[in-house]
Amino acid sequence: MRAIISVIGKDEIGILAKVSGLCAEKKANIVAVTQSVVEGYFSMTMIIQVEDMTCTIGELQNLLDERLPETKNRVMHEDIFYEMHRI
Fold first, then answer.
1. Which residues constitute the domain of residue 24?
2. Taking every annotated instance into account, which residue ranges of this chain make up the domain ACT (predicted)?
3. Where would a tag sit more exposed on the chain, N or C end, judged by fewer CB atoms within 10 A?
4. Within a 10 A sphere around the Cβ of 29, how many other Cβ atoms?
5. Domains in the chain: how many in total?
């Protein structure tokens, strides 16, 4: 079972480190990540495995919002993400 994390906001040092550190802390295995910076704005999409995660997806969302309040963060189950972006 996988989940998608997306983070968008003004670029600053350490955003990726904060997200990956939180994933490691909660035993969420990162299987893919893509990031870019365009004219000072950071955008990242990360796919994580959540079978062994020590919190719920909702709790991970709340922790991410606490640690990165200056960015727009979203964590959702892969199935929900797929359905939202299906044509």
1. 2-84
2. 4-83
3. C
4. 14
5. 1
